[in-house]
Structure formats: C-alpha cells, structure tokens
Design a protein that fits this description.
This protein has 210 residues and is of the alpha/beta class. It has helices at residues 14-22, 35-40, 51-54, 58-64, 77-88, 100-106, 120-141, 147-163, 167-173, 185-194; strands at 11-12, 28-31, 41-42, 47-48, 69-72, 94-97, 112-113. The protein has a 5-stranded parallel beta sheet. The radius of gyration is 19 Å and the shape is elongated.
C-alpha cells in the first residue's frame, strides 16, 4: 500500500499518523480500546471496535476494507494484539500506532475529549494492587494461606509481561463501566468500507460496539 512516499511501515509514530491524516491519505483509524476509553478521548475520525469483539469480525474487514488500517489503543499493547489477530485472519494492510493514545497526547496532538474515565491499564493496576495488598494483609491478620492470593497475582503479572497479554484487562473490559452505547458492528464496517465520516446525524460519537 503506497502513501506517496513508499509503503507504510508496520509501526508508525503518532506524528507520522498525524501527518498522514493532515495530508489526506486514504486510511482507516481503528481504535480497539473499550467504548468507555474511546468516549473519554479519541482521535477524530477513528472507528471503535473493542479488541474483545474484533476477532469475530476480522473477515468482514478483510473482505471490505482495502485502505491501510492503523490500529490504536491506550499504550500500544492491545493494538499489537489486534494486529496479530488481523494478520492471522488474512489482513495485510494493518499497522500499529506506537505508544497509543498516551503517546498521541504526549506529542500534543489534537484529540476529541468526552467524559473522563480511567484507562484500562490504570484499572488493571488498581485491581492487581488491591488484590496483592489484600492477600498480604489477609495472610497476617486473617489466615496465612491468603498470601497465595498475592503470589498468584504477582505470577499473573509476570506471565502478562512475558506473553504481552492481560487476562485481567479482558475481564475488566466486559464490566458495564467499560461498556458504552452499543451498535451493530456492520455499521462500523460499512462506514470503514466507504470511508464515511464516523458518527451519527447531529455530530454524535463515532460508530462503536460495546
């Protein structure tokens, strides 16, 4: 896929993505965070299909979207997982925005802001830290076997780092707190296929699936 300066690299910096957008490049921004994260802050024009729903719709994107798809999440981890799933499904025109929305905002680039909510990484740190503290204190003041709770969470965090996955994040993503307004995913796919501006009449938020 050409952008006038050669093929797009697999990983792009936020500044490179911004320059492509400003230059009018034909591409699709696909935000794979939870709907609540997306509603909190997003890049204008980005479509939202959460990571936990993306896999079952990869074939639709493969069959209908020919433009480069740039994957966005909070820090880049979920975008890379989305990239792996999409490539396994046969998509080759997928790219990752390095550093996600954290890097985008750190670069001072414009973003659409809504009601502020905790990002998934912050939620994971809160829950994991709380469980470790509960296990450690519980083993001292309640029952010694509770220390295994802290050990289990610690082992889970190590496994998460080694495998670059996070089961806790997938579970938290299913909570009502992290779900926004629902939609038919075909609405998102159809908009991506045609290049229609994301959103409903009246300037509402981009089509999303929760």
């Amino acid at each position: 896929m050409q952008n006038g300066k050669g093929a797009l690299p697999d990983v792009l910096t936020p500044q490179q993505v911004h320059e492509l957008i400003e230059g009018g490049a034909e591409l699709r921004l696909l935000d794979v965070r939870t709907p609540r994260e997306y509603e909190s802050v997003r890049i204008a024009g980005a479509y939202n299909v959460p990571l936990d729903l993306l896999g079952e719709h990869c074939s639709e994107l493969r069959d209908h979207v020919r433009e480069p798809i740039i994957l966005i999440c909070q820090s880049g981890v979920r975008a890379r997982r989305a990239e792996a799933a999409m490539r396994e499904a046969g998509l080759r025109n997928v790219h990752v925005m390095d550093g996600g929305m954290v890097a985008w905002q750190a670069a001072g680039l414009a973003a659409v802001r809504g009601r502020q909510r905790w990002g998934m990484e912050r939620q994971v740190r809160l829950v994991a830290g709380s469980l470790v503290t509960l296990g450690a204190l519980g083993s001292v003041f309640v029952a010694q076997p509770l220390v295994w709770l802290a050990a289990a969470i610690g082992a889970g965090l190590v496994f998460s780092a080694v495998t670059n996955t996070c089961g806790m994040a997938l579970l938290l993503a299913k909570l009502p707190y992290n779900r926004g307004a629902t939609c038919d995913v075909r609405e998102v796919v159809d908009a991506m296929k045609t290049g229609a501006t994301p959103g409903r009449s009246g300037g509402g938020p981009a089509p999303q699936c929760g």
